[in-house]
From TrEMBL:
PROSITE patterns named in the record: FIBRINOGEN_C_1, FIBRINOGEN_C_2
Native source organism of the sequence: Scophthalmus maximus
Keywords recorded for this protein, A-Z: Blood coagulation, Coiled coil, Disulfide bond, Glycoprotein, Hemostasis, Secreted, Signal
InterPro entries tied to this protein: FIB_ANG-like, Fibrinogen-like_C, Fibrinogen_a/b/g_C_1, Fibrinogen_a/b/g_C_dom, Fibrinogen_a/b/g_coil_dom, Fibrinogen_CS
Domain Fibrinogen C-terminal: 233-488
Transmembrane segment boundaries: none
Subunit field text: Heterohexamer; disulfide linked. Contains 2 sets of 3 non-identical chains (alpha, beta and gamma). The 2 heterotrimers are in head to head conformation with the N-termini in a small central domain.
Protein name per Swiss-Prot or TrEMBL: Fibrinogen beta chain
SUPFAM superfamilies membership: Fibrinogen C-terminal domain-like, Fibrinogen coiled-coil and central regions
Gene3D superfamilies to which the protein is assigned, alphabetical: 1.20.5.50, Gamma Fibrinogen, chain A, domain 1
Organism superkingdom: Eukaryota
Xref: Pfam families: Fib_alpha, Fibrinogen_C
Example of a GO cellular component annotation carried by this entry: fibrinogen complex
BP terms from Gene Ontology: blood coagulation, common pathway; fibrinolysis; platelet aggregation; positive regulation of heterotypic cell-cell adhesion; protein polymerization
Length: 490
């Protein structure tokens, strides 16, 4: 019973210690300058960027109707020509009328009438004789008119027949037109939509291709940002790494071709053949800020930067700024025991170094976990011990040994894994074996001022080229380099 009680007490103490540690984290984290950052503006709207953007309201207005029918004045009836009244003629009364017409007609009588009739008969006969040919002529004319009317009737009937025929033809054509219309409508309703779908598919593919091209163009632009690499004569001597080149007579520090694995093609690297008996493969180099180290996972995996320059001696004996690439570093350190030499320089010219007798980078599948051991040097043992400015768990957080590699697009650090807002690489400027987060930051932002401040840092964090155990968090080194070679126990 006593033993059980003691065991329970031990468990409780251990649990309480754990919780205390967590509380310490939180208190420390709250007090750390990392947290006191300015808040980000709300982005519910998109304000215009002054001088670069403008707002143009685009509205469609239909054009006015033109050439659609001109107004014509309505025709007016022709004016009536001046009419004049005609004198009413008095009827012929055989000379029997009164002198005044209001008095009416005076009828003749007796022989007087006979004489008058005889006299009249002559006149009438003459008139009849004159009228007769006119009547004949009129009769003939009537016949002609009759014939003409008959002919017109025939023509009219013929026309009506033609019109009838035409309407039948028109009817037939109308039917055909309706058939055509139905066919076209069906085509529009069924064939066109499917064709449009096909075209939309094609359009989507074209769009994807354009996006790919734009990405490729962007990638090319990124490449073009880097300064042009000068061509260097490649030394005849080569080997699987710089140590082998040294043994084969390559004693000058310069760019060489190495081929660690005959299965893969050789690649260029800078060999330091003078420091500590030479044989060093330069895997990391910062010296003037000419290369951006804020890069993606894939770039750190493949490597980037400039291997070396020809400063006028006919061969590339001046190293550039570069990262050899995690894949190559991993391969080199896994071939055999490897040591690493980290040399650094401040802005006054002082130099220190940190050396580890064992240095191995695991493969891609384990996110290039780093393992170091066997420190010596005068820069401070950042990779194994963390920052000496910190104590307890806070120092532990800055140890790099055993960490996976992280970049701003691949968070493998120890700072709240799974929370995308807690990314050391994003805040500290480069790819590195971040913990939570660092005591050494050789791939950080390059400050030409040396000392820098929280206000100068992009995220208010110590994102410079930092080796805390030498210069603290707020001093960015002028130069730092990492070199590896096979380790031979002497
Ligand atoms: Ca994290």
């Amino acid at each position: 019973m006593k033993t059980l009680l003691l065991l329970s007490l031990c468990v409780y103490v251990a649990w309480a210690q754990d919780n205390l540690d967590f509380d310490d984290y939180d208190i420390e984290a709250t007090n750390s300058p990392d947290v006191n950052r300015t808040s980000v503006d709300a982005r519910g709207h998109r304000p215009l960027v002054k001088g670069r953007e403008s707002y143009t309201p685009s509205r469609y207005s239909p054009p006015p109707i033109s050439n659609g029918g001109r107004y014509r004045g309505r025709p007016t009836p022709a004016p009536v020509r001046g009419s004049h009244s005609q004198e009413e003629e008095q009827p012929e009364a055989g000379g029997c009328t009164h002198a005044a017409k209001e008095m009416g007609v005076l009828c003749p009588t007796g022989c007087e009438l006979k004489t008058m009739l005889l006299k009249q008969e002559r006149n009438v006969r003459t008139s009849i004789n004159e009228l007769k040919p006119q009547v004949d002529q009129l009769s003939r004319s009537s016949n002609n008119i009759y014939n003409y009317v008959s002919s017109m009737s025939n023509s009219l009937r013929e026309r009506q027949r033609i019109v009838g025929d035409n309407s039948r033809v028109v009817g037939r054509y109308t039917d055909r037109v309706e058939d055509q219309h139905a066919y076209i409508k069906e085509t529009v309703d069924t064939v066109f939509p499917s064709s449009i779908r096909v075209l939309e598919g094609v359009l989507d593919k074209v769009r994807l291709k354009i996006q790919k091209l734009e990405k490729a163009i962007q990638a090319q632009r990124e490449l073009c940002k880097e300064p042009c690499k000068t061509s260097c004569p490649i030394p005849v001597v080569s080997g699987k790494e710089c140590e082998e080149i040294y043994r084969r007579g390559g004693r000058d520090s310069q760019m060489y071709l190495i081929q660690p694995d005959s299965f893969y093609p050789p690649y260029k690297v800078f060999c330091d053949q003078t420091t500590n008996n030479g044989g060093w493969v330069l895997i990391q180099s910062r010296l003037d800020g000419s290369v951006d180290f804020g890069r993606r996972w894939d770039e750190y995996r493949r490597g980037f930067g400039n291997i070396a320059f020809d400063a006028g001696k006919g061969h590339c004996e001046t190293p550039g700024e570069y990262w050899l690439g995690n894949e190559r570093i991993s391969q080199l350190t896994k071939m055999a025991a490897t040591e690493v030499l980290i040399e650094m320089q401040d802005w006054t010219g002082d130099k220190v170094h940190a050396q580890y007798r064992q240095f191995t980078i695991q493969s891609d599948t384990s996110n290039y976990v780093m393992a170091v051991d066997g420190y010596s040097g005068n820069a401070g043992n950042c990779l194994l011990e963390g920052s000496l400015e910190l104590f307890g768990i806070n120092r532990t957080m800055t140890i790099h040994n055993g960490m996976m590699f992280s970049t701003y697009d691949r968070d493998n650090d120890n700072w709240t894994p799974g929370d995308p807002s807690k990314q050391c690489s994003r805040e500290d400027g480069g790819g590195w074996w971040y913990n939570r987060c660092h005591s050494a930051n050789p791939n950080g932002r390059y400050y030409t001022t040396g000392a820098y401040t929280q206000q100068m840092a992009k995220h208010g964090t110590d994102d410079g080229v930092v080796w805390m155990n030498w210069k603290g968090s707020w001093y960015s080194l002028k130069a730092i380099s990492m070199k590896i070679r096979p380790f031979f126990d002497s």
